[in-house]
Amino acid sequence: MFNILHQSPLSKNLHRLFLLRSIAIVAQCILFALVYSIIELDVPWAKMTIVVVILTLLNFFTWVRLHHTFPVSNLELFAQLLIDIFALTALLYFAGGSTNPFISLYLLPLTIAAAILPWRYTWAIAGMTITCYTILLFEYIPLPHDHSDDHSAHLMEFNLHISGMWLTFVLSTLLIAWFVVKMSSSIRDRDKDLAQAREQALHNEQIIALGTLAAGAAHELGTPLSTMAVIAGELQQEYPQDEEFQNNIRILRNQIMHCKQTLTQLLAKAGQARTEDGNSQSVDYFLKQILDKWQLIRPSTKFSYQCDGVQPVPLIMNTQLLSQSILNLLNNAADASTNQVSIKSTWDQHTLNLEIHDDGEGLTGETVQRAGEAFFTSKAPGQGFGIGLFLANANIERFGGTVRLFNHPEGGACTHVTLPLIPNMT
Asked: What is the pLDDT of residue 417?
């Protein structure tokens, strides 16, 4: 009826209150029918029926209200509980007042108020129920009573009263238990959401710290790279006849220039990443670009690539962060591989599945448990910083995807990446 998983806690509570009231209305209708047809008590049925009809209409308006997105307040829940108290008071007034065995149903709205509302509203509900109960001690329409000396008639009335008390206890127990169980479930869900939010905040702090360190390192590396470029240029001019030396210097200068361009792009794209988020392209071309770039970076790495997916090819949001994240995963596989990296991609209209399988030694138990943590690496000292997988995982999750590492049945480690896609309508 309602997508309660995406509602606020107060909206969920109003939804449960609506369900409880619906159960109460159905129970009242069944009870009225039984009493009217079997026991044949002479009570103001018309007036009591009007009260139930009014309560049903109010519950219908609550159902309509739950389909709107504006937030539920504590005051609204308080008003809803007051409506239930007034309706119960009216029914009890027409049916014996405080002598009615269903008088203890006053505890139900009080229990709900204590579970979901602030203490001020709870005490107000408590005061209202006490006031209504007290009024019903003196003001009510008595239930029909057999004034004869027939012992069996008096015994029957007593048994009816006891049965009513038992039914009230059963209903109150079941409804309160159901509501409290649902409240406990909501509290556990809230605690889980808070734990995830704290974990996400910690990841964001680590990413910000890494970004700050990267920016500082980019500035600090600029000067020594410029010095190296000047010295390399002077060396190139001093030995113009040595072809092998000139070739080595040319490679060195190209590498220095590449490092300087990378640092420049790092600083420039830090402020451009947000504007690039809107760029989309077909997923097959997106993967081809990444693999072409990876082949230039790691020319000595052998790999095989297979792709399969639906047509027309869906689109993916192409950003520098996402491309770099997949490159980090490919580099990790290349570092672990001894011979070849196997890459396989499949997609449907909504999801891309990318598998990167290396033929290395596989993952240890500690690596499986701690993979993705900041500054954790399984590589030898000096060969890794433990941030590539962490940043790749954080960025892919930010784009709505997942990263999973496991040992492949055929040996080696496998990285499985899922990413959301945009259906291609052309």
From this structure: 92
Enclosing H/E stretch for 348: none
User: What pTM does this model have?
Assistant: 0.46
In the chain, which residues have pLDDT < 70? 1-8, 39-41, 144-164, 167, 183-184, 186-187, 190, 197, 200-220, 222-223, 265-278, 366-388, 424-426
What SS3 class is residue 43?
A: coil
Provide the b/e sequence for 191-214 (b: ≥16 CB within 10 Å).
eeeeeeeeeeeebeebbeebeeeb
Domain ranges of the chain: 9-144, 280-420
Q: Which of 326, 312, 340 is nearest to 418 (CA)?
A: 326
Res 70: pLDDT: 76
Strands across the sheet with 402-407, in order?
302-309, 340-347, 351-357, 413-420, 402-407
E strand or H helix that includes residue 112: helix 107-116
Q: What SS3 class is residue 373?
A: coil
Q: Which long-range contacts (CB under 8 A, 24 or more apart) does 47-54 make?
A: 47/94, 48/90, 48/91, 48/94, 48/95, 51/87, 51/90, 51/91, 51/94, 52/25, 52/28, 52/87, 52/91, 54/87
| Pairwise CA distance, residues 394 & 208, whole Å | 12
3-state SS assignment for residue 407: strand
CATH code for the domain defined by 280-420: 3.30.565.10
User: Which residues have CB under 8 Å from 20's CB, separation 6+?
Assistant: 108, 112, 175, 178, 179
Structural tokens at position 192: 């889980």
**What is the model's pLDDT at position 204?**
64
Angle between helices 151-238 and 243-270 (to 10 degrees): 150
pLDDT at 213: 59
293 φ, ψ (degrees, to nearest 5): -65, -40
Query: What is the three-class DSSP state of 346?
Result: strand
Determine the Cα–Cα distance for residues 89 and 85; give it in Å rounded to an integer: 6
Give CA–CA dist 84/356, Å, rounded: 61
Closest CA to 128 of 109, 142, 151: 109
Q: Can you name the residues that pair with 345 across neighbouring β-strands? A: 307, 354
Contact 319, 277 (CB under 8 A): yes
